[in-house]
Amino acid sequence: MKFQIELSPLLYSPLSGTSYKLSQLLLANMNNQQNWATPAPNQPRRLSTGESSNPPTYSRNDSSASSISYAQQPRGGAPAPRSSSLTPARNSNSGNEGIIVANRAGDEETEDGRIRNREAATKIRDAWIYKQIRARQDEFTQYKQGRVFIGTWNVNAKGKDESLSSWLCADWAQHGPPDVVVVGFQEMVDLNAVNVAVENKSQQRSQFWVEKIKSTLNSRENTMGDPMRSYTELSVKYLVGLLVCVFVKAPHKPRVKHVSTASVGVGVMGVMGNKGGASIRLQFYDSTLCFVCTHLAAHRENVAGRNADFANVFNKTSFEIGDEAVKEVIKLGSLNQWAAGTNSVGVSDHDVVFWFGDLNYRVDESIPTERVLELSEKNLLEELIENDQLNIERANGRVFQDFEEGPLTFKPTYKYQPGTDLYEQRPDKKLRAPAWCDRILWLAQEPGHVAQLNYLRSELNVSDHKPVMSTFLVTIKDVILSRREEVYKEVMKLLNEFENASLPMVSLDRINLDFGKVRYDQRVTLPITITNTGQVVAQFRMVPKLDENTLCRPWMTVTPTYGMLIPGESTEIEFTIGIDNTTSHLLNTSKEVLEDVIILRLENGRDYYISVSGSYARSCFGMSVDELVLYSDPIREVPLDPILRAEKYDFNAKAAMCVPKELWRIIDAIYERGVAERDLFSVPGSPDEVYQIRECLDTGASFENFSVPSMAEVLILFLSNLSTPIVPAAVFPTLDIDAQNIQSFARKFLEDMPPIQYNVFIYIVSFFREVLLHRERNKLSPAKIARICCSCLVSSSQGSPDESAGSVHQRKGNMQQLMLHFLETNSI
To answer: At 17, phi and psi to the nearest 5?
Structure first.
């Protein structure tokens, strides 16, 4: 049967602030045959903190226009900070290598030596087309207003004959039947080991709830016998106790496609389905919607666990929708991760995301359980809302970044005595603090495209949770295909004119990058300007060298690693060198040099070889004390080349010094200038002075009148960044230290230390003992200096990788006791 949908012109509203007559709005609201919710006269907006979740009220300020106003509410959930990007990045390459668009296995070399990778070319080309189409989407898109109902309920493995109308249909009289109904359940089965392992009851219970929802939505009272008012089941997805199902009004069914489901278990062992998420995504008209139903980690104190569960579900949820669906979404200008180049999409790749379920966030433990019960029973919610864990975590940007939630105006939905409206307080049951465990949030690429009409709870009482529901007014895109094809043809015509003219050609303003002297802990960037000098589009990308998997050496970063230029267009590629501890150690031991060749490939064209070179301005930072004591010359004058070093220095002779001269210089300067300085080692130094002091140590130049805090900071940085720590792991005490055995432990500790490390350790401890003589003025204590010594003399990474947390804690405690002993004893 082919559906013929009659859509009134009133229901189409391009985003131009068009106003409508109040009489038309009222008539549309009363018309039982309408299929769409009445559009707001202006773009719908999100409820912000302090606004009510009550439905909009229409005012007669103008006979030709209507406006929507929202009643003010003095309290509400804390908003999440909004960042520049829509969502956390999915599947991003966080390393220095950048994004490799396509593997070299797909490279094709022609007889004349040109190389082309069709996969890379297609991805880069589609990305450019997407950008052009998205920039012009208003030329071929009309906008509708549709109502979406979201309901969530933790049923605690209960439910039989109770009616769901008071939950699913509660606001139909006020807002009209929704166009899309989405319902999520948690704990539809007992979360015991058998059910989690084999899901033997999940299918049966999911079918039970789906049929109950169907019968409720399509009751005679709701449909009045009209099949066009009925709802059609679109999709169902379950995971052990989780269930999410989507229903759509019958007239809209032909405009739904690319429906896909996914589930992610994050429970037992991080993979089982007792906790996790079940999701459904679809294209509704020409907007992409995603619905995620989750059950997160329990227990009041386990906030970090809930945050981690959210991140896991968000990042691991993936919908395989196929190449054709992705291509269509590119034409629609809807795909967020358009450069991913795969046939799958994630949560963030949708116009609107609704996230709901038993999120399990509680009221902060700082409020006693009895106090939470008292305030909940009296419906005094302000203090509870301020201490709601989800509000706190969102406000601090730790979870649900960029998601929105309406104000909480209803009492906490958990934990009730099943079968009653009383919070659970029976003597034989564990007393739990009421909480808003059950929540509904949303995320929109265009914030103005979602307005929350209400945010309520139902009073069904068979479970220990109350159901929660919310109705949204969502702006839905409806593409006019003829106009879209015109725009698409114009874009493709422009592209084809250039692609078909000739082969691509680019020019680089240079291909040799000499970074000169690069210093420790310094980042130096040099740009190359690439210009399309040909008559066609030029696609470029960095590719790994043969038999390598990365684009460049670890100390180099390149941004961007790919791009496309139309004729005459230019862009800059930035090459950055950064020397960290690891690289410094490799350079000092001649296992690395600052030289590399980076390949820039022009698709369907030639390769360009960019030569990168630099010289390391050697620094005492990142070296070992065993090597530093060998040289009396400034370390900058010591050759990196091992042959030149051997010619200049006699390594068979004894060490030139007992302790590194750099250590002696900085300690001597602090001793002379400010050992009694107030807040010594507590106040940070000046970054510019820290850099200059480091240069003086490396070059042998005299210290200028630098501040004592800057000197102290350089001392800590020097000790912390040695390639090997002063205190080797081999001398760590393995048994508990007490007053009876600390003297023997201290003696054994010193006896086991290598000679150079022994000298340095004694020297540093002696210095700090001198510092403590001025404790009245510098405000330092032995305990604080002991902590400083542990942080800079003992590497936090030492120890076995599988060492238990208790063992690590014991080791740190033992070391701090030893340090304190050395600082306070009469003799070392």
So the answer is: 75, 25
Tokens linked to 228? 């066009």
**Cα–Cα distance measured from residue 78 to residue 64, given in angstroms and rounded to the nearest whole number:** 37
* Alpha carbon distance 131, 152 (integer Å): 37
Say which residue, 564 or 647, is predicted with more confidence: 564
> What are 321-379's pLDDT values in tens digits?
888 887 777 666 666 545 445 688 899 989 999 999 999 999 999 999 999 999 999 99
Q: What is the 3-state secondary structure (H, E, C) of 671-719?
A: HHHHCCCCCCCCCCCCHHHHHHHHHHHHHCCCCCCCCHHHHHHHHHHHH
- In this prediction, residue 3 has a pLDDT band, given cuts at 50, 70 and 90, of very low
**How many angstroms separate the Cα of 469 from the Cα of each of 158, 390, 718?**
19, 18, 59
Other C-beta atoms within 10 Å of 1: how many? 4
CB neighbours of residue 417 within 10 Å = 14
Cα 189 from Cα 240, distance rounded (Å): 7
Q: Are 243 and 230 in contact (CB under 8 A)?
A: no
Parallel, antiparallel, or unpaired: how do β-strands 556-559 and 180-186 relate? unpaired
Residue bearing the bigger pLDDT, 40 or 259: 259
Is the predicted pLDDT of residue 307 greater than 80, yes or no? Answer: yes
Give the residues across from 435 on adjacent strands: 414
For the chain, how big is the Rg over CA atoms in Å?
A: 34
pLDDT at 809: 65
What DSSP line would sit under 394-436, residue for residue?
A: HHTTSSSTT-B-----S---B-B-TTSSSB---TTS-----B-
Q: Note the pTM of the prediction, 2 decimals.
A: 0.53
The candidate with the shortest Cα–Cα distance to 663, out of 554, 766, 536, is: 766
Q: Which residues contact 129 (CB under 8 A, 6 or more apart)?
A: 330, 491, 492, 495
541 Cβ partners below 8 Å, 6+ apart? 101, 102, 120, 124, 561, 562, 563, 600, 601, 603
Predicted confidence (pLDDT) per residue in 211-246, tens digit: 999 999 999 999 888 999 999 999 999 998 999 999
- Closest by Cα among 562, 565, 598, 554 to 102: 562
* Contact between 437 and 154 (Cβ < 8 Å): yes
Half-sphere exposure of 258 (CA within 13 A, CB side): 25
* pLDDT, mean over the chain: 82
DSSP 761-796: HHHHHHHHHHHHTTHHHH---HHHHHHHHHHHHS-T
Q: Where are the extended beta strands (E) located within 220-286?
A: 231-239, 242-249, 256-265, 276-284
pLDDT tens string 702-757: 999 999 999 999 999 999 888 888 887 777 766 677 767 788 888 888 888 888 88
Q: By the 8 A CB rule, do 328 and 287 touch?
A: no
Query: What's at 473, amino acid-wise?
Result: L
pLDDT of residue 410: 97
Cis peptide before 415 (omega within 30 of 0): yes
